[in-house]
Structure formats: structure tokens, C-alpha cells
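Example 4.3 (complexes with small molecules)
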Amino acid sequence: MGVVANGSGNRDDRKEEEENRGEQEEEISFEELGVDPRLIRALSKKSITKPTPIQREAIPLILEGKDVVARAKTGSGKTFAYLLPMLQKLFSESGSRKNTPSTFILVPTRELCQQVYNEASSLLEFCRVQLKVVQLTASMPVPDMSTALAGPPDIVVSTPACISTCMSKGVLRTSNVKDSLSLLILDEADLLLSYGYEDDLKALIPHVPRRCQCLLMSATSSSDVEKLKKLVLHNPVILTLSEVGHSTDDIIPKNVQQFWISCSAHDKLLYILALLKLELIQKKVLIFVNSIDMGYRLKLFLEQFGINSGVLNAELPQNSRLHILEEFNAGLFDYLIATDDGRTKKEQTGRENHIRSRYSKKKLRQNMDAEFGVVRGIDFKNVFTVVNLDMPHSSAGYVHRIGRTGRAYITGASVSLVSPEEEEIFEEIKLMLGDDENQDSSKSIEPFPLLTKNAVESLRYRAEDVAKGVTKVAIREARAQDLRNEILNSEKLKAHFEDNPRDLGNKENFGRYSFHLDFNFICFCMIFWEQFNSQYIILASAMTDLLKHDKLLSKKAPSSHLRDVPEYLLDPTTKEASKIVKLSRAAMKIDTKRWRPGFKKGFGRSRDPLKTFSAEEKSRKGQKRREDNGEVIRHKKKKAKQGI
Ligand SMILES: Nc1ncnc2c1ncn2[C@@H]1O[C@H](COP(=O)(O)OP(=O)(O)OP(=O)(O)O)[C@@H](O)[C@H]1O
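Answer. The structure with adenosine-5'-triphosphate bound is encoded below.
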């Protein structure tokens, strides 16, 4: 069923055939796939009732014990596609004692370790099955790794580098791995090699027994995936589904509308201000930049206009990063500026070495986390719009960035600001998306229709004035200040997470986590309330402020006159466009709350106001109408002045 080799034949026919088959398969349930009732109950507690296409295809094959290579779009549910059969197999094996874990899940970043660990733990918790899952990361001291592996756990979620360290330090005995390992999963396989894990994987592979089942999950196909496939798998089943896409135009989920705006590099701050301040894009918004300084520049700039945002980058401590993701996912703030320079880890290391040779270590105060990855595979919840303030350096980077919206088939949009210097990469992205200059049919990535030149120009003076104030010194100070705050936060969070390891990163537990914090916090404040009545409010606000991630960093208080856009600056077209965005949001909320099998049929350009509205056209029409009715308008104004 649905396993398609790289066959030839007419592409349209094949697509149609697969769509028909897809419609029949949409009715297949988790029960019919043979998923354990306990897991089905656990899924229903997460409001997941129907399998996604990749889950429909992969689960039976994995249950059968096949090696599988599965490529599926970002946000298509690959994690459960392997977690469900993996847990089911372990349910039947539970009770048989082993020396080492029987399952390794290897991912490229620490953030992903946390995410996969949380998903597996929460499923187990709902199923009430006694299986142990642990996560190991390179930052853990060796004794902690030994403690985590004592038992031993059934599942280890880790990075290849960390497993290789465990083996070289003797924390994991290679002979035991050979005896016990029965399932090896490489998630985000397209990224593992580019993150520089080739040697670590090569160190592990000789100890993986031949009978061990191996799975390889990825969002994009690349030569790296091919290389891994050859390195790790034995005669695997290759999953290429209609949903996954045979061609380049299927790479980005169809439920994500992609737009672009042409502007100079200098005008990027002005354009993002216009998009946010004039409410032309929907919240929550994830904004990508290519450097940490640019992230802080944008944050300081937006602050002056009353727009608070969080910042996420490799320099921040791990606990803070995880907490920032959690707060953003929980909806505690709407704008997150993420630094992801889109280069592979190998390239970054090369660059860092180059910098190191030019500056003393003392000067290089930033301590980048080599296992950091904000974009790749992270399941951001309910991000409606992804903005590329800086364009990524590669088309694969673009796919992963855009994949942070439209997850689980919920509607999303992306807006890329393209400067003349970024034309080359933009052309490469368009080519990857299958947008051909000579094609008349609708393109995957279209000009953003809601922003007029007038609207942008109306904000220019204010934007340029504020941008001038965001100096290099201000950025440096803000960056250092944020780091100081987050190191302080991180210590507090560390203590908390040591006591409650599952609280972080687990959306089901987030309420509980907030409760723990709040409960402690309330007790703490009640004692103080009795003793220092008058100091209570000051203390309470200081504490909550410390753990907030979107707090102001600017030394200069935001000016109240910049908070609101005066009515006279808003032209009727922009007002209408902003109304359209709100309408569109309401319409789409009704459309797709969760993955719905019939989704593709209901979603179309004709129903989508964003696709049918053109600000420039409206503006021209409006101008024409005003020109035609010039007499009437002037006449009305005159009457109004006279108070008639
Ligand atoms: N059957 C389902 N029905 C509804 N939602 C689902 C289903 N399966 C998974 N999800 C949700 O879809 C979201 C995306 O899933 P997941 O993170 O596994 O995607 P992915 O394919 O691994 O994406 P990426 O390639 O970006 O890592 C998650 O929030 C997950 O809870």
C-alpha cells in the first residue's frame, strides 16, 4: 500500500491515481493500522484521532520489522510515525532484562532530544506502562550519563556525538550494545551529517547488530540521506508517498502560503515594522535573522514601537532556550526572533575557527552551543507566520524555516524580505519550489499582496529615526544584558527542572509547570505578604519579570507617540487590508483546527482573502475612484468643515 518506488510514467496521471488512493486511505484509522489500544487512548488525550499519511504508511511497515527510509514534509507527523510502533514493540518486550537500552533515537540537536523525549514520555505516561526513556546530551557530565544509563533505560534519546562519547568513555559498553540494540532510529536524517556527526555515526555503526531494525526519517532528500542509507540500513523500504511529493513543487506543505517582498537591505526594518504595526500578518510570528546582532537590533527597534518580542539564539543557556520555546508555544508572547544562519555546523565551525584565529579567546565571549538548532525539527505550536527578515543561505534552510508553520496541516503563511543581494538565493529557492519564469500558472511563492508603497512610506520617517538610535553599542549592551538575565534565569530553571524533569517542553505538562512555579511563588509571596506587606508588589513583579523572555532590553523607554500609528498615516487600503487579515484568520481558524483528512479539498485560493486581495490594485482603484469623485470628496470635506 502506498509504497512507491521511484518509477517513471506520466506525472499528472500518477498524481491523480495517488490522490484517489489517498482519499480512500484517509479513512484508515489507528485501529486498522494495528496500533495498540493503549497508544490510541494516549493519542486521543492529545486530540489525535486519525493518522497522517506518513503514519498510515510507516506504522505497519515498522511493526512488521522492516528497515524504513521515510521522507515526509515538515510538520507531517514523522515523530509519531516511528514513536508509536517503537513503543508498541517495546510493550511486548517489557519484562525481558537487558544490559543496555534496546532503542536509540538519534537526533541532530539538543532541542530535538528534549522534544522527542517529551513526546515519548507523555505517551508512556498516558499508557501507564513501565518503560524508561532517558535523554543524553553532550553537556552532561560523565557521572550523570552513567546514572541515566543505570537500570538500564529502554529508550535513549540522544545525539550521535553523545552516544559516541558514552562509548569511548566506557559508559556504554560496545559489547552490550551489540547484544541488546534492537531498534535504531535516525530522526532528521537529512541534517545529521551536515551537523558534523559522520564520524560519530561511523563509530557506532560497527556495534549495531545486523538484526537491529533501522529507521531513517527526514524532511528533505539529499546526498547525505543517501549516504546514511548506505551506511546504516539493510535493504530498506523507501517510502515515497503522494503527500511526501515526487517533485520539487511538493516540498512545502500546501497549507502554507508563501509570499515575498522586494526591498533594499536598508529598508528591511521599515518593512517588518509595516507588516507588524499595520497588522498585515497574523500572529504568532516567528522571525528569522542570520546573526545574533541582527536579532537584538530588531528587538530594540520594535520595542520603541511598543512591540515586545523574545529572542532565541545559540548563545543563550540551554534551560533558557527551552523555556523560551515553551513560553512561546504556550502563547505567552506573540513574536519570536530566531537566529539561524542556515549554514551547516561544519561551515560554522570553520568560520568560528577563523574568527578565533583573528581574536583572542577573551574577546570571543560568546559560547555557542554546537548542539543548538532552533529551526530544524522543532515543533513550534500555532505559528501562523514565518518571516525571513534575512534570507537563509540555502534552499534546504528555507524549507526547514518555512516548515515551522503549517504544522500538522494547520494553515500558515510565510513572508520573505528579499534584498537585491539575496536575489541569487531567492532564484535558487524558486527553482527548488518548481517556479519557472516561463510558467503562467500560479506560482508557489507570490508577491505579498497587502502592503502598499504608500503604507510603507508613511512609516519611513519614524522607522529611520528609531533605527538610527539602535546603535552598535546599544546592540552590544542589550545582547550582554540579555545573556546576563538568561544565565540568572537558567540557574533558577535548572533547579526547578532537576526536581521536575518532565515539566519542560511538554505541552500537556505546561499547565502543571506553571502551577508549580505559581504555587511556589504564591507560597513565597504569602509569607512575604505577612512580613513585608508593602514590599509584596515590588517583589512579585520583579520575580515574574525575571522569568519573562520578551521583556524590554532598551535603555531608552519606548516613546508613547510611537506606540500607535496615527489615523492620518493609515490609508483606507491599508485599513481594509488589515481587516482582511483578521477576517482571513477567523475563516482559517474554522477551517483547520487539527489535521483533517478532507483538508485539501476545502482549501482553495478562491476562499482565501489573502490570495484574492491586492492592495496595489485596491489602491489604484481607490485612487481612480477618488480622482473620478474628486469634486464630490472635496465638496463633502468643505461641508464637514463648515459643520453642515
Ligand atoms: N495524526 C495526527 N493528527 C494530528 N496532529 C498530529 C498527528 N500526528 C502528529 N501531529 C502533530 O503534528 C505536529 C508536527 O508533528 P512532527 O513534529 O512529528 O512533524 P515532523 O514531520 O517531524 O516535522 P519536521 O520535519 O519539521 O520535524 C506535532 O504538533 C504533532 O503533535
